[in-house]
Amino acid sequence: MLACGWLVLDVVSLVLAFPLAEWYRTYASMPDVAAANEMLDRSMLAWDNYYWVDPLRLVLMLATLVVVSRWIQRSSDVAEAPYVSDLTWAAWVVPIVNFWRPYQLVRGLFTASTGRQSWILPAWWSAWIARFLLSTYIQVDVDLVYGSPGVERAGSTLIFGHTAMVILTSVGLLLWIQIIRSITATQLPVQPRALADRI
User: Fold this and answer.
1) How far apart are CA 80 and CA 87, in angstroms?
2) pLDDT for the residue numbered 81
3) Would you state the pLDDT for residue 42?
4) How high does pLDDT run on average in the chain?
């Protein structure tokens, strides 16, 4: 359910990027500053519509953090996976650490549960890192070119960037679902025995 929420928000962002991209193209073609500023006043709706997704994304991010951290902790108890502690959630939010620690946690859990390595893990993590970097690039590029001579490229950045984000999110989610299914399938027979051993 949460996984689908990420894809839905990325698709909504893509749809809302079209009017904003059109605004950037029109703004870049304005003959003088006065006309451009008048158009700017009338364009606030395109900006407001584009950015209303951000609070929803924050709520989804926090919900995902709680659910995924809890799932990793419980699954690690069954699999006796390395590196997992009560501070698992911190791996996802501490800057710089969040580029490698979540992958290390999931890889350790996957290996402890299934007894094997898989190409799915680096592919999944690469998709999410690429999505994060692309999202950051879009935000910085669109904000920096505003009012500069390169403003016409912001519209293209929005459309192509958000399209690539939808693709990366789709790939990352499909791989994430496969990782969860693989771990869960190997733990189902072990789970009751592991819980009984803790009593």
Assistant:
1) 16
2) 76
3) 59
4) 82
Measured CA to CA, the distance from residue 126 to residue 119 in angstroms comes to 11
Q: Which amino acid is at 128?
A: W
Q: What does the H/E/C string look like for the chain?
A: CHHHHHHHHHHHHHHHHHHHHHHHHHHHCCCCHHHHHHHHHHCHHHHHHHHCHHHHHHHHHHHHHHHHHHHHHHHHHHHCCCCCCCCCCHHHHCCCHHHCHHHHHHHHHHHHHHCCCCCHHHHHHHHHHHHHHHHHHHHHHHHHHCCCHHHHHHHHHHHHHHHHHHHHHHHHHHHHHHHHHHHHHHHCCCHHHHHHHHC
pLDDT above 70 for 108: yes
Of 3-17, 51-65, 146-160, which range is least confident? 146-160
Mean pLDDT (whole number) for 75-80: 83
The pTM for the full model equals 0.81
